[in-house]
Design goal:
Layout: H1 6-31, H2 40-43, H3 48-57, E1 77-82, H4 84-87, H5 90-102, E2 107-113, H6 141-149, E3 154-160, H7 165-170, E4 177-178, H8 198-213, E5 218-222, E6 235-236, H9 246-265, E7 269-274, H10 291-297, E8 300-304, H11 324-352, E9 362-363, E10 366-368, H12 378-390, E11 395-399
Helix pairs in contact: 3-5, 3-6, 8-9, 10-11, 11-12
Length: about 425
């Protein structure tokens, strides 16, 4: 009888052998009640955000914390910006979590609704579901925030407000229109919604409530202003009457956010402002932003005092970007009288009504960790931190659009025994 070759045996009996080998596994799975909740993500296809966090931190217990579990704001917030795309990508996000873990950093500002307008999470609220992307970067936010809270990271949800192409696509009647027909667009081709449309206010409040309920500790609002570039004369607003001062419209929106989020639900809220709002107190910069009403209605005000963004000749500097300490510190000092006046006003009111609850925002500026106007060295990054501390800020936030930060500028985290890890020069880019 001719001896069969191994290849012939495999072809004849391979399928049968594979089936026999699978029987024990089939029987085992058939009698099991299902994977423990702790390990369920290993069996299920997770959305990218939750998968990214778990790849960094490993299993972290049941999916999602109780809604009431939030971290208080650190006494001095030291944060970095993280885009939704980065937060949903295991390797780059893992590096950033590790950066926070090893250094003095204690907070992350993460997009939950970015410049495209699409929600970066899978919403549970029915009215929000049409506005989610097909594959939300953060996925299940409760799993996402729970894992980061176990690392002690204070989480700030960043919400783009009036720059919202996604909402315009779904609700074009909310958009700033172009005289002669069509949707108005700015210089980059981006559409905006009318800041006076109340439905837009309600929508952003709904997004904020869900982000907070899912574990974010604070909600930060950006692009909370009128349009500023492009053919402004061609813009037609469906709701704004063109007569009411823009600063008044913004102040009304600030007040609405305060009432709906901070007063009603105790949600800490913050706002990003142009840096010049610290410098020019009575002028709204043509976009409706003023420091005084913002300080009255938010817990934190974050002016973007990037030295590279100030014009030649500002403070007498030929290039403000190479003077990071002076630019940041002078802006904070310049804005302080507005805050002092509000505190004095509050004290006078409390003399009449001791039970009156009033609060003035603290300033927590955005600083730059990117090369523009100058090559930013670790010393220049540190100079901005020192300027913020000397300028009575309640913290600082660093911006880098690529989410790559200068680790050697941040002090190593102090351990329980008082020792510190040596700093690492830089984080390799993706």
């Amino acid at each position: 009888m001719q001896q069969q070759k191994p290849k012939d045996l495999l072809a004849r009996y391979g399928a049968l052998a594979a089936f026999a080998a699978a029987i024990p596994a089939v029987v085992y799975l058939a009698v099991q009640p299902g994977p423990a909740e702790r390990f369920r993500p290993l069996f299920m296809a997770e959305r990218p955000g939750a998968a990214a966090v778990r790849s960094v931190l490993g299993p972290v217990g049941p999916l999602g914390p109780a809604e009431e579990e939030h971290l208080p704001a650190p006494a001095f917030v030291k944060g970095i910006y993280v885009s939704a795309d980065t937060a949903g990508s295991p390797k780059p996000f893992g590096r950033l979590v590790d950066l926070v873990d090893r250094t003095e950093l204690n907070a992350m500002v993460i997009d939950v609704k970015d410049g495209r307008g699409a929600l970066a999470f899978a919403p549970e609220t029915e009215s929000l579901k049409p506005f989610a992307s097909d594959r939300p970067a953060l996925g299940d936010m409760k799993a996402f925030t729970s894992a980061l809270h176990e690392k002690g990271i204070y989480l700030i949800a960043r919400v783009f407000v009036f720059q919202d192409p996604w909402l315009v696509a779904k609700k074009p009647e909310y958009a700033v229109q172009r005289r002669g027909g069509g949707v108005w667009r700015d210089r980059r081709g981006t559409p905006w919604v009318d800041p006076a449309v109340r439905e837009v206010w309600k929508y952003n409040v709904a997004v904020s409530k869900e982000a907070y309920a899912a574990g974010f500790d604070e909600v930060q609002f950006d692009y909370i202003r009128f349009i500023s570039d492009g053919n402004l004369s061609a813009a037609v607003y469906p709701a704004y009457d063109g007569k009411t001062p823009k600063a008044e419209v913004m102040a009304s929106f600030f007040s609405y956010l305060d009432a709906e989020l901070r007063e009603r639900h105790g949600i800490p809220i913050s706002v990003d402002l142009f840096g010049l709002t610290l410098w020019q107190h009575d002028y709204d910069l043509g976009i409706g932003q003023r420091l005084e009403p913002a300080a009255r209605h938010f817990d934190f005000v974050s002016p973007m005092v990037y030295p590279s963004h100030y014009p030649k000749g500002f403070m007498g500097f030929a290039n403000p970007a190479v003077h990071p300490y002076d630019v940041v510190h002078s802006n904070l000092v310049r804005g302080q009288p507005v805050l002092d006046a509000l505190h004095a006003e509050d004290e006078a009111l409390r003399l009449q009504n001791p039970d009156l609850s009033l609060k003035v925002a603290t300033v927590r500026p955005w600083l730059q960790d990117f090369h523009l106007g100058a090559t930013y060295t670790p010393a220049m990054v540190k100079a901005q931190m020192k300027a913020a501390e000397d300028g009575k800020a309640s913290g600082w936030l660093f911006w880098n659009a690529r989410n790559v930060y200068t680790e050697s500028a941040f002090a190593p985290e102090e351990k329980v025994d008082g020792t510190r890890d040596p700093p690492v020069e830089k984080i390799p880019s993706e």
